[in-house]
Amino acid sequence: MGQLFTLEQQSLRRRIPIIGREKGAWLLQKVKELQPKIILELGTANGYSGCILGSQGAKLLTIEINHAMAEEAAINFSRYGINAKIVLGEGTTIIKELVAEKQLFDLIFIDFAKKEYLPVLEGCLLLVKTGGVIIADNISMAKCQNFKAAVLHHHKLRTEIINIGDGLSYSIKLGDGFIQK
After folding, report:
1. Is 50 helix (H, G, I), strand (E, B) or coil?
2. Which of 77, 89, 142, 169 has the fewest CB atoms within 10 Å, i.e. the most exposed one?
3. How far apart are alpha carbons 4 and 23 in whole angstroms?
4. How many CB atoms neighbour CB 8 within 10 A?
């Protein structure tokens, strides 16, 4: 995390929306704990969270709609030695393509257009392995309330809300033999 201090400061100064230090530290702890091999990120921005997600050697596939941000992220990924592939495009469309390709991920991090969280949920459930994790940022924002309710009550997920800043949801995909409590 200390290595990302400069990137964090530059991002804040330029008003680039990043998860920030406190959520970043929590995310890094989860990545170290889970040791995911393949990660999907929806919303790259300048690569700050992607650098955290990929810091332990996972392959990162990240989706960004803004070409300039994607170029900046590519530079940051290179600078920090992150094994990342950036896909330019709209998240909901790319999710459908990944589902059609039957891709599977150990961890999915959602931090893009808030109104699109709920529309990508079912696709993300098909993309994350059983026992895998879906983490969503900004979960306490008004535009995320339908998504928050969906993950808290979804029969295929066990979800907890992480109360840091405007919140995160941390959802584990359950297998068919599990019963949601």
Report:
1. helix
2. 142
3. 13
4. 17
Copy the structure tokens of residue 153.
């009550």
Residue 158, in any domain of the structure: yes
What digits encode the pLDDT tens for the residues 48-73? 899 999 999 999 999 999 999 999 99
Beta bridge partners of 133: 107, 172
Q: Write the DSSP string, 134-152.
A: EEEE-TTSGGGHHHHHHHH
User: What is the domain-level CATH number for residue 26?
Assistant: 3.40.50.150
Q: For the chain, give the longest Cα–Cα distance.
A: 48
> Would you say residue 178 lies in a domain?
no
Nearest to 153 by CA among 180, 114, 126: 180
User: Which residues are registered as beta bridge partners of 153?
Assistant: none
Domain assignment of residue 121, given as a range: 2-173
Q: If we measure between CA atoms, which residue out of 115, 111, 108 comes closest to residue 172?
A: 108
Nearest to 25 by CA among 55, 5, 61, 1: 1
